[in-house]
Every structure is written in structure tokens, then in C-alpha cells.
Specification:
By secondary structure, this protein is of the alpha/beta class. The longest helix has 14 residues, at about 75-85. Helix 2 crosses helix 3 and helix 6 runs parallel beside helix 7. The strands form 4 sheets. The chain has a 7-stranded parallel beta sheet, with helices on both faces. Strands 1-3-2 form a 3-stranded antiparallel beta sheet. Strands 10-11-13 form a 3-stranded antiparallel beta sheet. The protein contains 10 helices and 15 strands. The chain has helices at about 5-15, 20-30, 30-45, 65-70, 75-85, 100-110, 120-130, 155-160, 185-195, 235-240; strands at about 20, 50, 55, 95, 115-120, 135-140, 140-145, 150, 165-170, 175, 180, 200-205, 215-220, 225-230, 245-250.
């Protein structure tokens, strides 16, 4: 049984994806030791997962709400978006799938000229639609109310009609072994079609995805050509090095660490 405070902490994690010990202690006017005890009990029940300074939603089968995901690591996502946009030349064709990080990429691409963007992301289409230099093509299919993603077999068939220069994909979680994970098998089918029909695939994901889990496997990091993140753990560096995946880290003083070996 959870206490009222623990229930409130869990609801807060569902809204924002992450809670911190210091913020919770201040909010409830209790000691940090009390909050740590609450978080430990929630983690023992596999409702949350401990991270440095707090806890994250133990995302086994349910994703954090889309609006909440926009606020998680917002600055990191903006930097990732700019770094991805710098990789894409004018007059290129590209896929962009659903996600808050890929939406940040779309905003960073708005100064480009002559792009053809095929997307199953209503948020991306809405952002790019007013710009005359963008040709936006949107997939048909079932619209998820939760995030504006277009999914289903119709969307998969639509994506398969194209062969584009670049794909920009986001994922919900990244395992230590390099597995790329998501929550909705219908979105996974679309993402797999996107990966299969692009000449160069760019994974755009912030480091919070290394702290999460999700039940459906999209593929593996070795299928990517480039991975752009804010900062990656050593295991991910090794996977990228061994599979010739260019790793770009955007955190200050990190930079492009596409190295032949680990230091």
C-alpha cells in the first residue's frame, strides 16, 4: 500500500517523467531522508527507477505524456535538434518520425531551403507548414490522440513508397546493449519502415532515454549511421565505435567524440 504522499509523488512522475529529492523535500516540507525512503519504496515496487538525485518513471508499458516530455531535457533537445539540422543540407529529402526530440529537429530545420519532409508527426507538419521552402508530406493512418503520431499499416505502406536521403528518428528508450525501444508496436512498424527506406539514418535522443525502458523493440543502434545525443555512457560509445556509427555529443565541452578508440 502506498501512502498519500507516495501516490502524489508517483502522479508527479507520470506528469513530468522525473522527480528530484530536493524538490520533493521542499514541496512536502519533509527531510531528504524521508523522501529517499519514499522513492526507495516506490522503486521496490518497480513503479519508479532511481537515478542520481531522484527517480524517473519506471516506463515498462506506459509512456510519459507528450506535453510533459517536451519539458524533459528541453535545452538538451534544442541542442540536439540544431546538431542534427547541421548534418542535413538544403534541398534534401528526409523522414521525421514522432517524438519531442524529432520535433526539436524540425524547428531547427526551418531555415533550410528546398527540403522535402515526409512525416507521421502532426506536430512536425504543423511547425513546417507555413514555410514556403518546405514541402511537407504527411502519412495517412490512425492519429494517436496522445501525441499526434500517425500509425498503423496505412502509414507503413505510405512510408514504403519513398526512398529518401535522410531519416531522423527518435525512440522512447535505449538499452545498454544498444537496443532501441518504444511503447506502441504500431509506431515501431512505422519507424522500421523509415529506417529501411533512408540512405542515411540519424538517431536523435537525449540522455534521459538511457535511464528508461519500453516493451517493444524497434531495432539496434548498429542500424544507425549517426547518433546525436547530449552525452552517452561508455557502453554506447563502445557500440558506436564497434559498428562505425558516428557519435555526436552536444553537451558543453564534450563535442563530437567520434573516435577510433575510447580514451
Amino acid at each position: 500500500m502506498l501512502s498519500d504522499r507516495q501516490m502524489q509523488i508517483l502522479e508527479g512522475a507520470k506528469r513530468s517523467g522525473r522527480v528530484t529529492v530536493d524538490e520533493l523535500a521542499g514541496h512536502y516540507d519533509v527531510s531528504v531522508q524521508t523522501i529517499r525512503k519514499d522513492l526507495n519504496e516506490l522503486c521496490e515496487q518497480r513503479l519508479l527507477s532511481r537515478v542520481h538525485g531522484g527517480a524517473v518513471l519506471s516506463s515498462g508499458v506506459e509512456n510519459v505524456g507528450y506535453d510533459a516530455r517536451r519539458t524533459i531535457a528541453a535545452e538538451e533537445k534544442a541542442a540536439i535538434g540544431k546538431a542534427v539540422a547541421d548534418l542535413i543540407p538544403d534541398r534534401a529529402s528526409l523522414f521525421i518520425n514522432i517524438g519531442t526530440t524529432t520535433e526539436a529537429v524540425a524547428h531547427a530545420l526551418l531555415r533550410h531551403a528546398g527540403l522535402m519532409v515526409i512525416t507521421n508527426n502532426i506536430n512536425v507538419a504543423t511547425a513546417m507548414r507555413p514555410y514556403p521552402e518546405m514541402e511537407v508530406v504527411i502519412a495517412g493512418g490512425v492519429v494517436r490522440r496522445s501525441d499526434g503520431g500517425i500509425v498503423g499499416e496505412a502509414a507503413v505502406d505510405f512510408i514504403r513508397q519513398f526512398r529518401v536521403d535522410f531519416a531522423v528518428i527518435g525512440v522512447s528508450a535505449i538499452d545498454a546493449d544498444g537496443s532501441l525501444l518504444d511503447f506502441d508496436y504500431r509506431e515501431v512498424r512505422v519507424a522500421q519502415a523509415i529506417i529501411s527506406n533512408a540512405r542515411h539514418v540519424i538517431l536523435a535522443s537525449d540522455s534521459s532515454k538511457f535511464e528508461r525502458s519500453a516493451p517493444v523493440r524497434i531495432g539496434h543502434l548498429d542500424q544507425m549511421n549517426t547518433f546525436v545525443t547530449d552525452i552517452a555512457p561508455t557502453s554506447i560509445h563502445r557500440i558506436c565505435r564497434d559498428n562505425d556509427v558516428r557519435l555526436i555529443e552536444t553537451a558543453p565541452h564534450v563535442g563530437d567524440r567520434n573516435r577510433p578508440s575510447l580514451s
